[in-house]
Write a structure and sequence with these properties.
Pathway: Nucleotide-sugar biosynthesis; UDP-alpha-D-glucuronate biosynthesis; UDP-alpha-D-glucuronate from UDP-alpha-D-glucose: step 1/1. Its EC number is 1.1.1.22. The mean pLDDT is 96. The protein has two domains: 204 residues, 3-Layer(aba) Sandwich (Rossmann fold); 216 residues, 3-Layer(aba) Sandwich (Rossmann fold), CATH 3.40.50.720. Helices cover 43% and strands 14% of the residues. The protein is elongated, with a radius of gyration of 24 Å. It is built from 17 helices and 14 strands. By secondary structure, it is of the alpha/beta class. Bound molecules: uridine-5'-diphosphate-xylopyranose. The site of uridine-5'-diphosphate-xylopyranose has 19 residues, from helix 9.
Length: 457
């Protein structure tokens, strides 16, 4: 099929590359010439396992084209995916300017019938606004072209996006229940046929419900994490091991094991943004989202939990203290630093007078960029960040090690070396990577999240 993807950001690029891999003829549009140049030069602008190979393979096969030519992009695809960013506005609501600009461009150039698929995460009612924007442009030029707007939210996890796209656990598609909607449904069915071979994974629904499903999924997952984080903080006080509790409740099939890991807070581009974006929608309809307020408040506090534990141990004034930090990205297998807990921790440590040595397998270039913004008002603090080339290299002369991201490379370090390299053998583990009893046996002072019972001997 002939597909156009508008926006070659994270979601657009993965969607375009994977649809090309399945044999579709894909045209990817982006207005950022630099990004298109990188892609046409054989590179990719983001770190995502497996993506570079798929892009290279399909580009050389001629099934994947990158361009800034709007008219050509609209002419190409019978199905036009809108996968542009929806960054938070000042009140937290999703900023739809890029989505609506994409819709207007389609309206300005389209001929015949087009299926417009909204892939970006957008509030309920956006598909209708996309339709209205197209309609206005068609009227302006007296065109009788026709279209149907479909909602097809993405459920891609960074670091596993190719796998999530190729082996989805569900495909959510919202179509209108009218004649154009029926044509759109048939086209979407054809496009997603390869994913439904063994069993049907598509859930068909109305457009508004599909738009809402994306927010509901992320809000539910964020709620589980904040719930466990709140219990973990209580566990620390009452002498309970939250990991034992996680096993104990996760084995109930009604609860399940996923997304019950307590830690130093969730970050990334989706959970924080989507939890916040539901609020203005609720307000528009006169409702207060009590649970989601709490989810966000708990997470904001949870990002401070490592800093609080460090200060409880070393005092509020950290002048003269030096800390090693393992992991900067908001999660493993990505260089994404959006809403990463490491940013909160570094802010606290540096502002309290400490110096740090940080290590991350891929996020250091991105970290340098975001820290320059985070410390724009105190640029002198940037001098107190040392970027280490190896995890062990970060430890020398540190008063403690803080672990923020659960990269696999951190899971089985040589603990003897950790002990000798650190000035004080103290670990603050924001992702509960290690067994507290083992740490005690090895002579390491260990502070996990919600694991106090085993460390009190
Ligand atoms: C999420 C959704 O999982 C995905 O379906 C959606 O399309 C986009 O948002 P992503 O942001 O890539 O994906 O990361 P995810 O793996 O969900 O983790 C989000 C954050 O939650 C990370 O900071 C992670 O460390 C944290 N997390 C996750 C926990 O603290 N505990 C858990 O149990 C799981």
């Amino acid at each position: 099929m002939k597909i156009t993807i508008i926006g070659t950001g994270y979601v657009g690029l993965v969607t375009g590359a994977c649809l090309a891999e399945l044999g579709n003829d894909v045209f990817c549009l982006d207005l950022d010439q630099q990004k298109i140049d990188i892609l046409n030069g054989g590179g990719i602008p983001i770190h995502e396992p497996g993506l570079e190979e798929i892009v290279a393979r399909n580009r050389s096969a001629g099934r994947l084209v990158f361009s800034t030519d709007i008219a050509a992009s609209v002419a190409h695809g019978d199905v036009q995916f809108i996968a542009v960013g929806t960054p938070p506005d000042e009140d937290g609501s999703a900023d739809l300017q890029y989505v609506l600009a994409a819709a207007r461009n389609i309206g300005k150039h389209m001929q015949g019938f087009k299926v417009i698929v909204v892939k970006s995460t957008v509030p309920v009612g956006t598909a209708e606004r996309v339709g209205a924007a197209i309609e206005t442009e068609l009227k302006l030029r007296g065109s009788n072209a026709t279209y149907s707007v479909v909602s097809n939210p993405e459920f891609l996890k960074e670091g596993a996006a190719v796998e999530d796209f190729m082996r989805p656990d569900r495909i959510v598609i919202g179509c209108d229940d009218n004649s154009f909607g029926n044509i759109a449904r048939a086209q979407m069915k054809k496009l997603y046929t390869p994913f439904n071979r063994n069993h049907e994974r598509t859930f068909w629904m109305d457009v508004r419900s599909a738009e809402f499903t994306k927010y509901a999924a992320n809000a539910m997952l964020a709620t589980r994490i904040s719930f466990m984080n709140e219990l973990a903080n209580l566990a620390d006080r009452v002498g309970v091991d939250i990991e034992a509790v996680r096993h104990g409740i996760g084995s109930d099939p009604r609860i399940g094991h996923s997304f019950l890991y307590a830690g130093c807070g969730y970050g990334g581009s989706c959970f924080p943004k989507d939890v916040q974006a539901l609020e203005p929608t609720a307000q528009d309809y006169g409702q207060d989202l009590l649970i989601l307020h709490a989810v966000e408040a708990v997470n904001t506090k949870q990002k401070q939990v490592l800093g609080a534990k460090i200060m409880a141990r070393f005092g509020d004034d950290l002048s003269g203290k030096h800390f090693a930090v393992w992991g900067l990205a908001f999660k493993p297998n990505t260089d994404d630093m959006r809403a990463a807990s490491s940013r909160v921790l570094l802010g606290e440590l540096l502002r309290a007078g400490a110096t740090v040595s940080v290590y991350d397998p891929v996020a250091i270039p991105e970290a340098k960029r975001v820290f320059a913004l985070d410390f724009a008002e105190n640029p002198e603090l940037l001098e107190n960040i040392n970027y280490a080339a190896t995890p062990m290299g970060a430890l020398d002369q540190a008063d403690a090690l803080a672990i923020v991201t659960e990269w696999k490379a951190f899971r089985s370090p040589n603990f003897e070396q950790v002990k000798t390299r650190l000035k004080q053998a103290v670990i603050f583990d924001g992702r509960n990577l290690f067994e507290p009893a083992l740490m005690t046996d090895l002579g390491l002072e260990y502070h996990g999240i919600g694991r106090s019972i085993l460390t009190r001997s």
